[in-house]
Amino acid sequence: MKNSSSGPKIIGLTGSIGMGKSTVAAMFERAGIPVFDADAEVRAIQGPGGDLVPAIETAFPGSTGPEGVNRDALGKLVFADKEKLATLEAIVHPAVGLKRAQFLEEHAQTKLILFDIPLLFEGGGHAIVDHVVVVSAPADVQRERVLARPGMTPEKFEHVLGLQTPDAEKRERADHIIDTGLSLEETRQQVRALIEALTA
Q1: pTM attached to this predicted model
Q2: How many CA atoms lie within 13 A of 142 on its CB side?
């Protein structure tokens, strides 16, 4: 944990695929908490004219075009190859870290900010936050949500799960757990209660 004595308290929000993390992050944002969305930053710096497009094209020829990085083409190149995935992460992670530092500086006067980081534990991000919040739901609910996504297959789902820290381990390492296996309103109540506790 960061254990900062000054500046805003930092929440690190994470959760496995299909657990409702984006929905929960949006609830924090609507409650007035500044949210840094790591995935959105990655999409921006890999999009048309994005800062990382040249470096990714150099490392993975043919993976980019006028619209920036072709995520499907890049995915086929890296996800079955740990070395290539590590190369990609070495390009992306420092750039996202810089954006995160800029975001923190911009919101230095707020009481609470949230870092929405899907691979919080896998990337070591838990070390830079004050409170780890894990979004979780029963496995059958998770599976139903994920397989309802366009283009998703059971094989793809299992592959993604294999790249992520298991939900049970995330829950054990969490400071707070938000259960999204409930209604949206019940989830929203959990978010409100947590914000109140952390800003008290």
Answers
A1: 0.83
A2: 18
